[in-house]
Design goal:
Blueprint: E1 3-9, E2 23-24, E3 27-28, H1 29-38, E4 45-50, H2 53-61, E5 66-68, H3 76-87, E6 96-99, H4 109-118, E7 126-132, H5 136-140, E8 146-149, E9 155-159, E10 183-192, H6 193-200, H7 206-211, H8 215-220, E11 225-229, H9 241-253
Parallel strand pairs: 1-4, 1-6, 4-5, 7-11
Antiparallel strand pairs: 2-3, 6-10, 7-10, 8-9, 8-10
Helix pairs in contact: 3-6
């Protein structure tokens, strides 16, 4: 089984135009992501898929490999599906494509290896990670996506709502979050090539449209998504204010 990673990076963003090129600790953000992913042991190669000549040039300038893609893709998944065709790499249907978001400069190479390892289970069409929730703020935040899964790690459902609902605790003013069996989804994915190509051609599903969660499209179509628990935390960059948080974390790790 071969595995490559593709990092989707578009220039336009409503809240933060040019985000992949924002400077963090002296490097453009996309370079931090690329270099961290490149350190994963289970990958044959790493690519950046972008609609922007500026991002393309920045990636090639630091020695990375970039692939130009269509400007108006609706999602990063669609962008990496096009990139797979453009790369020209000879991948079999069961080989693995890892999707790492271009705004995750704190991504750990171990997280990349974890999602690749999930795909050693032939039952898994898609692999992804989850981390135990330990704060009430995350429970109540609809931007923190929750996931529930079976004893073999296969996802039942993803939701912006608190799942499972702890009837004896929720509603109380104070409760110990450490006692909860709740997990948040960490948005790194591994797809089998065949599944990625099929997925990118599917229309949005009903539950996906309600929750605005793309992974529900796969579950509704019967694809099995396998979850692995991680202890690692990431900090996504959504606004310029997030850069300071990332730089503080980088300084602490030095």
């Amino acid at each position: 089984m071969s595995a490559i990673a593709i990092i989707p990076a578009r220039y336009s963003s409503t809240r933060f135009p040019g985000k992949p090129l924002c400077m963090i600790a002296g490097k453009p953000m996309i370079q931090h992501v690329y270099e961290n992913v490149k350190r994963a042991k289970g990958l044959q190669n790493v690519f950046v898929a972008t609609d922007s000549s500026l991002i393309y040039d920045a990636v090639t300038a630091f020695g990375g490999i970039a692939v130009k893609t269509y400007e108006k893709h609706e999602s990063g998944t669609d962008r990496i599906a096009e990139a797979v065709n453009n790369i020209g790499t000879q991948l079999n249907d069961d080989d693995v494509i890892v999707n790492v978001q271009g705004d995750e400069p704190m991504i750990k190479p171990e997280m990349v290896d974890n999602v690749v390892e999930i795909m050693n289970d032939s039952r898994a069409a898609i692999g992804t990670l989850a981390k135990r929730i330990t704060s009430r703020k995350e429970i109540e935040d609809p931007n923190v996506v929750k996931v529930i899964f079976d004893q073999d790690g296969f996802a039942y459902y993803f939701s912006r709502a608190p799942i499972p609902y702890h009837r004896e605790l929720f509603g109380k003013e104070n409760f110990n979050c450490d006692s909860l069996y709740m997990f948040k989804h960490i948005g790194i994915y591994a797809y089998r090539k065949k599944v990625l190509v099929e997925f990118s051609k599917m229309a949005a599903s009903k539950l996906e449209s309600i929750e605005m969660l793309e992974q529900l499209r796969a579950l509704e179509r019967g694809y099995k998504i396998k979850i692995k628990e991680t202890l690692y935390e990431t900090i996504g960059v959504d606004t310029p204010m997030d850069i300071e948080r990332v730089e503080k974390c980088l300084n602490m790790s030095l």
